[in-house]
Amino acid sequence: MKIIMLGAPGAGKGTQAKKIAEVCKIPHISTGDIFRANIKNGTGLGQKAKEYMDQGLLVPDELVCDLVVDRIQQPDCKKGYILDGFPRTIPQAEALTNALNAIDEKMEYAINIEIPDENIIRRMSGRRACVGCGATYHLVYNPPKIENICDVCGEKLILREDDKPETVKKRLDVYHNQTQPLIDYYEKQNILKDVDGTKSMDEVFKDILAILGV
Ligand code: AP5
Question: Is residue 79 included in any domain, yes or no?
Fold first, then answer.
């Protein structure tokens, strides 16, 4: 199964993508996680990406497209994958469509998690991310068992640099200008499925499973 997660920053793409990946036994490919891992490891890619991410801007297409096109051709992606945070611009979507056409494959689902901007600002201030494994929590909706400690790996939880309110507002502007047009793009490909992201995490998950028929 080949799935794309669409939605504004904080809509719940990562939360749902991890659960879907587990149930469908396919890799979860998050470009945000890939960049954060590169920043943590001090790579050249990480240094370049950080300049943009800290300002709430998108990393240039040329730093993202080849990376994802290479990743989806790895052996673990043979039975499918779930893309979280990619594509984010029309040129990225076109690069993906072209790469799939070249191997006679097609994207199957573009799941669009819909949520108003007001809810997002509230959600992001409560999100905490693990510095070790990248797992995400929410102070109210999905708290860790021990305050500020990751349930999965025991490392510290932090407020992401780009989750500060001013940067979230910038990310929302960028989303509306550059990423929202992908909704039309995938509607034209007849694979767009809208989901109400204001429901609880479990309800959103059930709605997505019903769409996927699993
Ligand atoms: P990325 O990491 O992809 O960030 P994003 O798309 O802005 O998405 P988020 O991770 O912020 O949110 P999410 O939708 O996954 O929400 P989550 O599930 O965590 O990208 C970061 C940056 O990297 C970008 O700004 C850009 O600079 C760069 N980048 C990445 N990909 C790129 C690309 N392709 N091209 C160019 N640049 C790129 O949920 C949010 C919070 O809400 C959590 O605390 C969660 O617990 C909680 N929550 C989730 N669902 C619910 C619910 N139903 N009810 C209540 N709370 C909920």
Answer: yes
